[in-house]
Design the sequence.
């Protein structure tokens, strides 16, 4: 998680080259606990594509942000 300006950016890392919506369950739990402060979550994984995994979780290859 990154905190800036009172907002929270939840981040999770998966050692998988494919992710499914179920892989975002912890990000959804975090966002439910902090609904007023949490931004959409980021799920880093070992794949190739950046895409919205769910309405509020963006799947991003880890190497695009490092």
Sequence:
């Amino acid at each position: 998680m990154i905190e800036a300006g009172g907002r929270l950016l939840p981040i999770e890392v998966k050692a998988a080259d494919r992710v499914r919506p179920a892989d975002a369950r912890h990000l959804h739990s975090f966002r439910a606990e902090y609904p007023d402060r949490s931004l959409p979550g980021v799920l880093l994984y070992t794949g190739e594509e950046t895409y919205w995994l769910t309405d509020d979780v963006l799947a991003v290859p880890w190497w695009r942000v490092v």
